[in-house]
Specification:
Length: 179
């Protein structure tokens, strides 16, 4: 439709000007709005959508960390005889626990790096799709925040794998090889 922009004089409330224009042209069905209010409403909607997306991503991260703990636990149970054989060959219990932690660390670091890089690329694509007027080459990527999130996720993933690694280190060769 047709749009006409009106600038309020200095010291005059824009909402009062919009109300005055609407009342003057009520017969024409004119709708007057304040641009600052429209922009603020759009910004709130965009912020809410981005917070929803962040929440979904955080939930996915938590599920992934929990899954790593479950996989580590199953790995210890399924490899009980192999761990017993290693212990019978002379592996110390600390070496067994460390090997399970290193395995889980490799999985966690690989997933976190892939996830962080995918998130940065996806974020850039979203900004380009929804805000084409923004030059994304000058938009700063919050590497510090991303690094802190990756570090926190890594530490939590280690926490979920400590118990299975400790459980693996407590496997005695005679018990594991009995079956």
């Amino acid at each position: 439709g047709d749009r006409t922009y009106v600038k309020a004089a200095a010291g005059v409330e824009p909402r009062q000007v919009a109300a005055g224009i609407e009342s003057a042209f009520v017969a024409s069905g004119l709708n007057a709005s304040v641009l600052a209010d429209s922009y603020a409403q759009r910004q709130r909607l965009t912020g809410g959508a981005l917070q929803l997306l962040q929440g979904v991503m955080a939930l996915g991260l938590l599920v992934g960390i929990a899954a790593l703990g479950v996989i580590s636990t199953r790995s210890v149970i399924e490899r009980r005889q192999q761990v017993g054989m290693l212990r019978a060959l002379g592996y110390q219990s600390s070496m067994v626990g460390l090997s399970f932690l290193l395995e889980a660390s490799f999985i966690a670091i690989t997933g976190l790096v892939i996830g962080a890089l995918t998130g940065v690329v996806l974020g850039d694509n979203i900004v380009n799709a929804f805000f084409p007027q923004i030059d994304t080459s000058v938009v700063a990527v919050p590497w510090g925040q991303i690094g802190l999130m990756v570090l926190a996720a890594y530490l939590f993933s280690l926490l979920t794998t400590l118990a299975p690694a400790w459980q693996a280190s407590r496997i005695y060769p005679a018990d594991a090889l009995r079956y």
